[in-house]
């Protein structure tokens, strides 16, 4: 079990991404909504193997359920159609609407869950490292990575600013309106401070030769495992089989 | 040839109407330790930015005069190449972090990665610096979770690891506690002993008296005095330009004003003790 978990987590990020991509493409090849919905369960199974079943399921349900429910309600009531199943005053549910909603949501669920799975089992650091190896400019990868690190820092800073404003008599707790009023004195120092911080960040980066015109090296690299080619070949075979099956059908 | 030669340098920030730096002439010699002192707003940080090339490469504005780094004009240097020549550390320990690294070890390695060194060499260099600055115990920590003093030492380490010949250090201790200050100065002294040229902006006069070879005194964007530390810090005249003097020098000057001549003006604790002992002997007090 541990062995399987390890080999899944250690797959090269682009291989993992190919799995995601394969799942996304396959829902457009296989007709009907049953397969597309089952992608969610396939992803759940993979996340179970990778040891992050709970996190994956939590996130997938939270992120997808609301969208699915909303689309269902809207489409089943307002999609134009003639086969009325149920109606009340001006509202009516139509068969066409339900079919369309099933079709649409199943694909959203499939794509959403395969991407959530990808980010659950891939460390951002690994992903960035593999993207750099693919030739993505360091400036772009810097923006990705720094944003991820800076968001928690800004959260901490917000708390500091809120405390500072409280000591100056700004009410930050209580009724909704009071909270809204506290928004400006909290946000403006945060935003202005972050902009001012950018200048020093640039100086820091320049001091570390960030703009030196040589090819950068990296202490951290992800290596391809022996399973990577196998997974890729299996994906390719599956994809070809699917396409042939669809054409022959 | 001087390491850095500055001739008739004047500079004006964009939008601002007046010059921040007026007609500065200085030459910086290899292996010397310069302290830049002066009141707030005297242009010390701007001066550092010019030497490091952030002016004119990053900040625009109007730069006149000549700044030669090893004989080549600052305008002709590439910022990226300057980073290997001149290291720069500034006040705020909290923004001097790359923001993309998870451990101190990786943080210190960041500059070398950017220079494209081989991984094995980077590891060796980072390990050496960690050992030299005695911060090995920090290497696995997240740079965001360090204290101010630790961050500042990591910032210094990240620059030192790139082995620049010149270090420009702008008020490294202004946000640190006494212990952090002492540790930072230990590192600066270590660099001085390694023969690096150091340009330090600092307000703590006792520490300057202890370590710096030469002083550049600035006021209102002008260099009003420059010379050997012992000459400038023992001169009462220095006080006129909005700068402080070490407590020990003030004590010596006051003694002289009270007609108790100590023979020379002491600058450090050690010197004070010795001159006072000599004076007491001379006066027959001891």
Radius of gyration of chain A: 24 Å
Number of β-strand runs of chain A: 2
Strand content of chain A: under 5%
At the first level of CATH, what is the class of the largest domain in chain B? Answer: Alpha Beta
| Backbone CA Rg of chain B | 21 Å
Write out key terms for the chains shown.
A: 249 residues; mainly alpha; 2 domains; two-stranded antiparallel ribbon; 4% strand; B: 286 residues; alpha/beta; Rossmann fold; six-stranded mixed sheet
Short description:
The complex is a heterodimer of chains A (249) and B (286). With 249 residues, chain A is mostly helical. Chain A has helices at residues 2-9, 13-29, 33-49, 53-78, 95-121, 124-133, 138-167, 176-207, 227-248, and strands at residues 84-88, 91-94.
Polypeptide structure, described:
The complex is a heterodimer of chains A (249) and B (286). Chain A is mostly helical. Chain A has helices at 2-9, 13-29, 33-49, 53-78, 95-121, 124-133, 138-167, 176-207, 227-248, and strands at 84-88, 91-94. Chain A has a two-stranded antiparallel sheet. In chain A, helix 3 (33-49) runs parallel beside helix 5. Chain A is flat. Chain B is of the alpha/beta class and 286 residues long. Chain B is 39% helix and 21% strand. Chain B contains eleven helices and ten strands. Chain B has helices at residues 44-52, 54-57, 79-85, 104-114, 119-132, 148-160, 178-193, 205-211, 229-233, 247-257, 269-283, and strands at 4-12, 21-28, 33-38, 62-69, 72-73, 86-89, 166-170, 197-201, 214-219, 222-228. The model of chain B has no long low-confidence stretch (mean pLDDT 91).
